[in-house]
Amino acid sequence: MEKLYSLISPRVSSERQVREGHGLESQEQRCRKYSDEKGYIYEKTFPDEGVSGAILDRPAIKQMLQHIDNNPNKKYVVIFDDINRIARDIEVHWAIRKAFTLRGAVVESPNFKFEDTAEGKFIETILAGKSQLDREQNARQVRQKMKARLECGVYCFSAPAGMEYKKTSEHGKLLHVKEPEASLIRNALEGFANDRFLTQLDVLNFCLKNKEKLNGKKINFNFVKRILSEIIYTGYIEFPKWEVKRKKGFHQPLINLETYEKIQAKLKRPEKKLTERDSVEFPLRQLVCCSICGEKMTGSFHKGKHRYYAHYFCTSKNCPAKPRNIPKSFLEGEYKRLLGKIAPESEIIELTQAIAMDVWHKSIIGVKTSEKATEKEIETREAQIEIFIDLIPKATNDLVRTKYESRIEILENEILTIKKQTTPSDYLNCEEAISEVLDFLGTPVDYWEKTNLEGKFMMHNLIFTANPMYNAQNGFGTPEISLPFTIKDAFSNSVSSSVDRTGLEPATSSVQMRRSTR
Ligand SMILES: [Zn+2]
Predict the structure, then answer these.
(1) Is the pTM higher than 0.70?
(2) Nearest Cα residue to 445 out of 338, 348, 350
(3) Backbone φ and ψ of 341, nearest 5°
(4) How confident is the model at residue 282 (pLDDT cuts 50, 70, 90)?
(5) Count: domains in the chain
(6) What's the CA-to-centroid distance between 467 and ligand 1, angstroms?
(7) Where is the domain boundary, 268, 300, 319?
């Protein structure tokens, strides 16, 4: 009698099935027992865990088919615990059956006898159809339960970033704010709504900068899009796909509905590209707020009698500020005076300098050693080439000669590749980069004057936690600045810009000292 080999394929789609005794092991046990009773030679088990029976693309099925293909001389019996372990979709069921039949493998089950007769196929079809019906009814039931929960104001999909489920006595599992993620998401959303972050790219960069707080989350454009359009953060629930209209949920909100609507409106507008004219002419647009009404100031040209005048003014139409238009050069001068009063803590400059130089020196040593290693690699190959060149005239036949020549060609190509990979000029840029960071850390004013619009914008956001407030009568108020920065002098308008400079003396000179050693 021909030997028959058995392959076993248990499948579970959920944890519930494991609990209810339909786990992989119990399925496998029954199939092993069946295989022994039938006198088959057991060969291998291919488990499918957490995989839906509604799809054809299943790893275990693929591996099993591959295994059969790899052993063309063996005759296989594939054992499923039950007919609904093959698939829970009638089309998938027959596709899998056909794949095995084509390979000459037989499908069997301890609970069902597959028969290749008209009646047998009819019954199999009915059972596969019943399996599909069960699955779809079950899915519908789950959906109805979830929909009912949503309509009661209880969210039940997977928790969005910054939130987590906690058990409550009143509503069962309920979304709660999860710190520190939540504060970060709130900052991102509010920043985008109020134009502190102009574009989604700015939000992305902000999230990337604070990656460690969003542990385990994949931060990319999709993440940004998802958090920006997530209604759950407002404390409301909405799911148009199931016709669940917007309603107040029981969970804690992260932002208010107004912020959310602002974000949605902004997402619908095409992202504004900063034009050349915008960038060169009004760097403080959106970066300064009017302290009378709180709105952002913008800048544009106003037509005078004889020429155009460049002004900044607040965007609120009914603002009582007088005068409303602030000449461009005046406001920018005031802003620079403000920057002049702000400097990073001197310890931070020193520390940054020390760390940067340390990193730089280490990287230079690294570059130098790898340069030496590279030289050696090239030398070895050149020596080998020499040997082959010497050998060519001594070769006894053409075949050997061709072999030597092709070896030389390979070695020459390797040398070229090695040379291409090394770019010895890299570490010079590194020093430039350090010097740029230190320039900025030393004097924000100098950096502001030197850098382009993007650099100005970045620096502004780095220093100020909220836009500085300005009005023509009182000038800038005390701004809210981020932690590594301090205001050098007591905040008064009597401080002239020359005094500001001396205030920054230690920082400036230490940067210069470092430069002179270059
Ligand atoms: Zn105003």
Answers:
(1) no
(2) 338
(3) -85, -5
(4) confident
(5) 3
(6) 14
(7) 268
